[in-house]
Amino acid sequence: MTRARLVRIGVLIWLAIVYTALWGNISIANLLAGLVIGALIMALLPLPRVPVRGGLHLLPLLELILVSAYYAIESSLQIAWFSVRRSGAPISGVLRVRLAIESDLVLVLCADVLNLIPGTMVLELDRASGEAWVHVLDVGSEEAVEQFYYITRRIEGLLIRSFEPRLQEAS
């Protein structure tokens, strides 16, 4: 069985699970209806093929998961502090960061990871220049801005090492 066929079967099963979960009742009828509706969705609204290059390296991926969870917790605590402190709301702004990620899929993953960190939101990605514009909650000091760039570079590096090993070998 080819990889593409396995992916399509996985997507079909996922759509059936989502359909069943939306109904809130696990039954054979809901699972079968989910499979039929999932097959119709896949046939009538096909997603474009995304070229996937590189591979998957588990140790950098595990580190990426742990680092992302740490930054999410740290940012959540920072936002909680901002909400209870007396000095008011922090100074927010939009920062531009240039990313060295080549793969479109990994670039989207990078935006998703940055969006999961409270206090940041990717506003725009420019594939041609490799730039991202990110709204950051706290840009009130040079230290806060440098912290944002450090976190972004660390996440970017882990994504590259996890999914784009050929870039790592070339540098």
Radius of gyration: 20 Å
Instruction: Kindly state the number of beta strands.
Output: 3
The largest sheet, given as strand count, sense and whether it forms a barrel, is: 3 strands, antiparallel
Query: Whole-number average pLDDT?
Result: 88
Helix content: 55-70%
Descriptive report:
By secondary structure, the protein is mostly helical. The protein has two domains: 42 residues; 106 residues, Alpha-Beta Plaits. 62% of the residues lie in helices and 11% in strands. It contains six helices and three strands; from the N terminus they run H-H-H-E-H-E-E-H-H. A three-stranded antiparallel β-sheet has the order 1-3-2, with helices on one face. A hairpin with a 4-residue loop joins strand 2 and strand 3. Helix 1 crosses helix 2. The longest helix has 27 residues. The chain is globular and about 55 Å long. The two termini are 36 Å apart. It comes from Nocardia vermiculata. One of its GO terms (molecular function) is monoatomic cation transmembrane transporter activity.
Question: What's the helix and strand layout?
Answer:
Elements: H1 3-23, H2 28-44, H3 58-84, E1 93-98, H4 104-116, E2 120-126, E3 131-136, H5 142-163, H6 165-170
Antiparallel strand pairs: 1-3, 2-3
Helix pairs in contact: 1-2, 3-5, 4-5
Brief sketch in words of this structure:
InterPro entries: Cation_antiport_E. By secondary structure, the chain is mainly alpha-helical.
Properties at a glance:
171 residues; mainly alpha; Alpha-Beta Plaits; 2 domains; 3-stranded antiparallel β-sheet; 6 helices; 3 strands; disordered C terminus
